[in-house]
Amino acid sequence: MKDKVVLVTGANGGLGSYVTQAFLDAGATVVGASRKIRQSDFNSPAFTALLAEISTATGATSLAESVVARFGRLDVVAHTVGGFAGGQSIAETDDATFQRMFDLNLNSTFYLLRAVLPEMRKTGSGRIIAIGSRAALEPGVGVGAYSASKAAMVSLIRTVALENKDAGITANAILPGTMDTPINRKAMPNADVSKWVRPANVARLIIWLAGDAGKEVNGAAIQVYGNDV
User: Given CB 3.0 to 4.6 Å as the disulfide criterion, which of 29, 37, 70, 133 pairs with 150?
Assistant: First the structure.
């Protein structure tokens, strides 16, 4: 990843922190974006923290412009931002919950992609990796809004792969099962965490997809289910 400029959204989150550190360890220049992030979150001169709100078109555009203004290019986007809501059937799901899932999981992805693609097409070798969910392929009871938003996000990523292969860009989605993060451990204290997906392993997969070895993988929805298969 030397000489590569990488944007990680949700850079200090449960997965994003692993992804950010993995790119730094690989020698990349990393811009970490989040609603709440500090320069001190990562101890590296190759890291730049940017406050960003990508659930709006103006926020995503401002972020993309800031990255290019500072570093002159954008080679890789690792999009780890997302949100979860569950516990209600479709018949019980209120408008606000449904819209919030699409704002966090689909709209933010759309705004971000639309903002970064014009610059990424100039590189001739751009890489986009977005984090979806197992629920995108396997909907469950009580998570209808979440599942639908993640499924739509996967469709969006596959479309981007088709539309930009002429410019050497690849776009792929990773669909993890439940990940072993502090938030999930707190929410499910009695769960069997041995079946959960390790964030560090997802981060390694992202690094591989972003590198030369992953250039022939495009438009994929990669299932990462840990021991819960």
Answer: 133
DSSP string, the chain: -TT-EEEEETTTSTTHHHHHHHHHHTT-EEEEEESS--GGGS--TTEEEEE--TTSHHHHHHHHHHHHHHHS---EEEE-------SB-GGG--HHHHHHHHIIIIIHHHHHHHHHHHHHTTTSS-EEEEE--GGGTS--TTBHHHHHHHHHHHHHHHHHHHHHGGGT-EEEEEEE-SB--HHHHHH-TTS-GGGSBPHHHHHHHHHHHHSGGGTT--S-EEEE-TT--
pTM as predicted: 0.93
pLDDT in tens, 42-93: 999 999 999 999 989 999 999 999 999 999 999 999 999 988 888 899 999 9
Write down the pLDDT at residue 183. 83
Domain range annotation of the chain: 5-224
